[in-house]
Structures are given as C-alpha cells and as structure tokens.
Design brief:
By secondary structure, the protein is of the alpha/beta class. The chain contains 12 helices and 15 strands. It has helices spanning 2-15, 39-54, 64-76, 86-92, 127-131, 139-151, 181-191, 209-214, 233-239, 245-258, 277-290, 317-342, and strands spanning 29-34, 58-63, 81-82, 109-113, 115-116, 135-136, 156-160, 196-199, 223-229, 263-270, 294-299, 346-351, 356-359, 364-366, 375-379. α1 packs parallel to α4 (86-92), α6 packs parallel to α7 and α11 (277-290) packs parallel to α12 (317-342). The protein starts with a helix and ends in a 9-residue tail after the last strand. The structure holds iron/sulfur cluster (SF4). Residues 118, 120, 122, 125, 127-128, 162-163, 203 line the site of iron/sulfur cluster. The site of iron/sulfur cluster has 9 residues, from α5.
C-alpha cells in the first residue's frame, strides 16, 4: 500500500508537469513517504528527514508517520512540511486530486488496491490507527484499474489492501464469514483477462467456502500469504487477532487440497508481551507442520499508541532477538524443503528482469533468454532455482 501511495503521487506530480530528479542534489523538493509499522521504520524516516534537511532542500513528509502523530512531527521538525495525506501533497503543488489515478508504468507486476483501513483491533497494530476505518473500493473501479493494467501489457496484479480479505464485510467484522472477497475475485475473473492474480496478506478468518471455490481458478496464483502472527492460542488471544490457530490449520488444509503445490507464506511476530518459551515453540511447531515456504519474521515492536505497548511481561530484546533468529533459521530450512519438493514439476514463470522471474508458487527461477513481461512454462530443477 505504501508503494502504491508513492507511485500514485509520482504519477500525479508528473502529470502536473514535475519531473523526478535523478540525483537528490538536483531536486527542488524531497518527498518522504513515512512508514511507522515498527520503531525501527520510524527511526529510519527521521534519519531520512535529517539527511534531506542537510541538503538544504524543501522537505515534505507524508504517510503513516504523520497520520498517527502529526503534531509531534511538526514540533520535532518545524522547518519541514508535514502533510499526512497524499491528497494534501498534490494540493501543495497546485495539482488537482483527480490526477491521483491508478499509476501505470513498465512493471510486469502491479499492486491493485481493493480497500484501505481496518476495523480489527489487534493490540499491537499501529497501522489501523494510521490508515483509519475500513473503506472498500467499488468493484467497477477495481476492474477498470485491472483493465488499464492489461492494456499496458502488465501480466500480473497483486490484490492489495490493509485487510483485503474483509472486502464486503462492511462494519461487520464480527461476522468475517460474510466477507465478499471471493465474490469480488469472481467478478474480476469474469470481467478481465489478466493472466495472473496474486493476493497479498490475507486474514484467515475471512476465507470462506466460496473463496476456496474461486481458488480453483488457474489464473489465481498458487500462493497464499497469510497474516498468521503466532501459532500460540494464548498469544493470538492477547493479540486480539480475531482468529484462532485452528482456523489457520483449517485454511491451509483446504488450500493444500486444491493447490497441492501451492506456496503458503506468513507474517509472524515473535516476542509479543507474555510470550513464554512454550508459546514460542507452538509457533515453531506450526511453521514446521504447515511447512511455510517463506516467513516474514518481526520481533515485537511496542508502538506507544497501541494497547500491547503497555501490557505486562514485556519480553527482553535479547530474547526477542534470539527467537527471531531461531525462527528465521527454521524458515530458511523450510524454504529449502519446499524448493526440494518442487524439483521436476512444471510451472509458469513471469519473467521480470535479468532473465529471472517468479513462478506462480513464488519461487524465483532463472529463465535463460527470458524477456521481461513474458510468461514461460518451465520445469523446476536444482539449477534454475535462484536462491536470494
Ligand atoms: S488485521 Fe490487525 S494487524 Fe492487520 S491492519 Fe487490522 S488491526 Fe492491524
């Protein structure tokens, strides 16, 4: 979503007659799109601002950081412009908001946002504060964007959002089974010809029977990225995730029945307040049982305005570091195991650059003489897997 915000802004500014400087020294203004998901991300943004200020440029910061704490940013950096929303940034440059359309360029894959915001109340999450309440985008607009992408030769879209699988739930996140996400996917499949549809992070509780029916369509990539966060029932409850560990196992079981070669990837937080060694081991066990092919491991980062930052039994940074390292090592082994199970299988690869690309089940493969944007059917072997 963050990438998409920058891309929209870039396209709107270019449409308004501005050009992107190749070197920051040549720029008149430096725009910084901030991320506040962890303390580390926040720190990096602050460093970028100081660096830009040192270049004596006009500095504008926008995005999730100032959306959460505009006043604090203004007080801390009185000489820069703090404009939380991208609409404010383009207005600052005298450009109409109508220019904030769907950005297109020569990428082979492009994210398409179907909603923004989230009505869940996960106790660790600052994103829901930054992004606000759920707003679903109309299906006609989504399809129009995908058709535009198709016309521009893009071969794969990544369905994107903050809590995308909740599309169509309205204000009833208490009833996740009412999600219309699968209905939206069917509508996209019917009204577009884009060859590949990938989905970004999915909340397991929203994946109903209709979803698994749609998953049978070969245009949907062999890849589910799940927002898992923990394998411990105790911690999932403290996180207020809105799903249990049993639902995660259930979703994976159904997905594997339909897509036996599908990749299952996950986001996991370690060192959440009160996480015992037993809780952590339950997460490791889940990773092994499910055989995730990739895990994004995040050590818990307390964000001041969230409940979990004030929970008792905060975990020491050493333990967080140790658990993150341990899980990352395990994830690396599982990733290799997954690659091993795929050797000899045929797959389709979307070639990106330097003669490599991703298979539908998210393995980076070498495609000799592959041209960017081309979809090639190849057999996976020890030699064509690109380990990165
Ligand atoms: S589901 Fe939870 S973690 Fe994800 S955006 Fe919503 S509140 Fe945040």
């Amino acid at each position: 979503m963050n990438w998409l915000d920058s891309a929209q802004l870039r396209a709107a500014l270019q449409a308004g007659g501005h050009t992107e400087a190749e070197q920051e020294e040549e720029a008149e203004s430096i725009l910084i799109n901030s991320c506040t998901v962890t303390k580390r991300a926040d720190r990096q943004v602050r460093q970028e601002i100081l660096h830009a200020m040192g270049l004596q440029k006009k500095v504008i910061v926008f995005g999730c950081g100032p959306k959460v704490e505009k006043k604090e940013w203004e007080e801390r950096f009185p000489n820069i412009s703090v404009l939380p929303h991208k609409e404010e940034v383009i207005e600052y440059f005298g450009i109409s908001k109508d220019q904030l359309e769907f950005p297109l360029h020569d990428r082979t894959r492009i994210p398409v946002a179907i909603q923004t915001g989230c009505d869940n109340k996960c106790t660790f999450c600052i994103t829901r504060i930054a992004r606000g309440k759920t707003r679903d985008f109309p299906k006609e607009k989504i399809v129009r964007h995908i058709q535009q992408a198709e016309k521009n030769g893009i071969q794969e879209i990544v369905i994107t959002g903050i809590q995308l699988a909740s599309w169509g739930c309205g204000n009833s996140l208490k009833y996740p089974e009412k999600s219309q996400f699968a209905t939206l996917l069917s509508y996209i499949l019917k009204n577009t010809n884009i060859p590949r549809i990938r989905m970004s992070s999915l909340g397991p509780q929203f994946l109903n029977d209709e979803f698994f029916n749609v998953l049978k369509n070969p245009r949907i990539c062999d890849h589910l990225h799940l927002s898992v966060q923990s394998g411990s029932p105790n911690i999932l409850q403290k996180m207020n995730r809105g799903h249990s560990e049993k639902e995660i196992y259930e979703v994976v079981k159904k997905a594997k029945q339909i897509r036996p070669n599908g990749a299952i990837t996950a986001d996991i937080i370690v060192g959440f307040p009160g996480e015992t060694e037993k809780d952590f081991q339950e997460t490791v066990t889940m990773a092994k049982k499910i055989q995730f092919s990739k895990i994004h491991v995040f050590p818990f980062s307390p964000r001041e305005k969230t409940g979990a930052a004030h929970f008792p039994k905060q975990i020491s940074s050493n333990t967080k570091k140790y658990r993150a390292q341990h899980l990352r090592q395990k994830a690396e082994e599982l990733r290799k195991n997954f690659f091993h199970t795929q050797i000899g299988k045929k797959t389709s690869v979307l070639v990106e650059e330097r003669e490599t690309g991703f298979s539908t089940n998210y393995i980076r493969l070498i495609v000799p003489k592959g041209r960017s944007g081309e979809i090639r059917n190849i057999q996976i072997s020890q030699n064509n897997i690109k380990h990165t």
